[in-house]
Design the sequence.
């Protein structure tokens, strides 16, 4: 059996913590990039498809059912990515 000194073990633990921080940092950067891309797609749909006011539901809507469905899907993705970014931020702050 090999003996491990306290210093060696501490260095090992620091290495694990640094690797975990690096991994979380990369995931956070990717999630932020994905979030920005989704937001750009949402803006593109709104800008290029146009909107109209639906007085029956009292809100502005996107022209075209397919475009409106795509917008709703992107908005759901945006919400999930915002939650992921918050979660990763929290995990990084806890390290």
Sequence:
């Amino acid at each position: 059996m090999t003996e491990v000194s306290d210093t060696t073990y501490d260095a090992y633990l620091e290495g694990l913590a640094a690797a975990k921080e690096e991994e979380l940092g990369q995931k956070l950067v990717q999630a932020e990039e994905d979030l920005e891309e989704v937001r750009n797609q949402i803006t593109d749909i709104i800008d290029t498809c146009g909107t109209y006011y639906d007085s029956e539901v009292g809100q502005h809507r996107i022209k075209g059912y397919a475009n409106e469905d795509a917008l709703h899907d992107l908005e759901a993705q945006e919400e999930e990515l915002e939650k992921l970014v918050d979660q990763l931020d929290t995990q990084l702050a806890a390290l």
